[in-house]
Write a structure and sequence with these properties.
This protein is of the alpha/beta class. It folds into two domains: about 170 residues, 3-Layer(aba) Sandwich (Rossmann fold), CATH 3.40.50.300; about 70 residues, no CATH class. Helix content is about 30%, strand content about 25%. The strands form two sheets. A six-stranded mixed sheet has the order 6-7-8-3-9-10, sandwiched between helices. Helix 6 links the parallel strand 7 and strand 8.
Length: about 240
């Protein structure tokens, strides 16, 4: 369970301090998925970074499994807008980075995860030799290698073409169902939010507050995009954002 209670987040210092998030409360059950959507620059990423323990809230509390989040934790994985791959390391070396930084996994490697993601044949390649879609999958492999219980994603598919984006969204869906981690997705894409979020939280302009929450109980199948339920949720989200 992820519990966010009356969280306010600032960034910057002194006279340059900006309030990014104000008095946000929400719960995400273990194994559930939630999407955060809102105007550009509204504070979505600031809230996600606070959940990841990378940014300290100025007030309120964030707990995962009943334990306060005061810094990065091994059970929390974060996937950023770009894959964040080190260009001088191979696919396998990049995928193993999280394991190398965590002493609990001295003999484990990300080989199996790479195979599961269809990257077994490119383990010795460097990032410059990969397509954008493959780079994103390497980032996913690195995040999955430590078997996290919480997966946080910040615009993980930004700038990809539509077909590649939809294929990787399908991959995310299957991984979420298989590994049963709690998923929190920050996105600007209304259809992505409707495809991957069991609940979608619409945030206001900065500072981010919760504007509305749209339940999406019928998501979970790869063909969900073609259903009336999907189009209804997309319509609700678009209406909420345009208000």
């Amino acid at each position: 369970m992820i519990s966010v209670r009356n969280v306010t987040v600032d960034y910057g210092r002194g006279t340059k301090t900006v309030r990014a998030v104000e008095d946000v409360s929400l719960d995400i059950a273990q194994g559930a998925s939630l999407a955060l959507i809102g105007p550009s620059g509204c504070g979505k990423t600031s809230l996600l970074f606070a959940m990841a323990g990378l940014h300290q809230a100025v007030s309120g509390t964030i707990e995962i499994g009943g334990v306060p989040v005061n810094g990065p934790r091994k059970e929390i994985a974060l996937i950023l807008q770009n894959a964040g791959l080190l260009p001088w390391k191979t696919v396998l070396q990049n995928a193993n980075l999280s394991l190398l930084l965590n002493k609990e996994y001295p003999r484990k490697t990300a080989d199996t995860v790479l195979e599961d993601l269809g990257l077994g044949g490119v383990k010795s390649r460097f990032p410059s030799e990969l397509s954008e879609g493959m780079k994103r999958r390497v980032g996913v492999a690195r995040a999955l290698s430590t078997s996290p219980s919480v997966m946080l994603m910040d615009e993980p598919l930004a700038s990809l073409d539509t077909l590649t984006k939809e294929r990787i969204q399908g991959l995310f869906l299957e991984l979420w169902k298989q590994h049963q981690f709690s998923l929190v997705l920050v996105t600007h894409d209304i259809e992505e939010a409707a495809f991957l979020g069991q609940r979608v939280v619409v945030l206001t302009e900065c500072p981010a507050r919760i504007k509305t929450v749209v339940d999406n109980p019928d998501m979970g199948d790869l063909d969900y995009r073609g259903t009336e339920a999907f189009m209804k949720v997309v319509g609700q989200l678009r209406e909420a954002l345009e208000e």
